[in-house]
Amino acid sequence: MAEAEDDSDIALRYIHAGLRLSAQEADRIRQDSLKRVLGSRKLLLVLDLDHTLLNSTRLDEVEPEQEEQLQRLLHSQQEAEHKSLHHLPQLNLWTKLRPGVHDFLARTQQLYEMHIYTHGNAEYAVEMAKLLDPSKRFFAERIISQADSKEKHVKDLAVVLGTETATIILDDTISVWPEHQHNLMQAGLSPYLAGQFQDAMHHMSSFNGL
């Protein structure tokens, strides 16, 4: 007979399929993580996707006139180093990256070890990470999705494996972080507001006393 899973165990499927840690093992890893990031003079930064780093719209929600405009914009950026608009038929989505996002990530990774944490599914999370970080320079495999959360519609730092004292959260929705309000900075709800990332970077720098 299989041994019952302890309710306090933490599932870490985004790291390895079927991986679970006891609360004690998770605490040990958090302390190791704290030593590692502080040793590299960094903190942890947990980033939401939708309305924070990007925004996505279903193909069937786009009017024909809007579709034409989007296709023109898509064509106009073919030679751009960093494309802001993406047509993703495999996900049935149009996705627009927030202005300045690549510069934001490039500068932020000098101060923070970054994680994605979204309430989207794993396929969506991985595909969005490819748009934001095709070389895996910023996030590596630190991509957390809805299925990794301990509770539905609630995000929790337990699955991030970082200590609260060294972690900052940037998310547009405050209510999904009931246990970590003091770690949270709310991203502006306007999805593509120029200058928003520069403001966030300025505010986050005040948390880093290294």
UniProtKB/TrEMBL annotation:
It is an enzyme of class 3 (hydrolase). Its EC number is 3.1.3.16. Coiled coil: none annotated. It comes from the Eukaryota. Gene3D superfamilies: HAD superfamily/HAD-like (3.40.50.1000). Pfam families: NIF (PF03031). It catalyses: O-phospho-L-seryl-[protein] + H2O = L-seryl-[protein] + phosphate; O-phospho-L-threonyl-[protein] + H2O = L-threonyl-[protein] + phosphate. PROSITE patterns: FCP1 (PS50969). It is found in: Nucleus. Keywords: Hydrolase, Nucleus. InterPro entries: Fcp1 (IPR039189), FCP1_dom (IPR004274), FCP1_euk (IPR011947), HAD-like_sf (IPR036412), HAD_sf (IPR023214). GO terms for molecular function: RNA polymerase II CTD heptapeptide repeat phosphatase activity. SUPFAM superfamilies: HAD-like (SSF56784). This promotes the activity of RNA polymerase II. This is RNA polymerase II C-terminal domain phosphatase-like. It comes from Coccomyxa viridis.
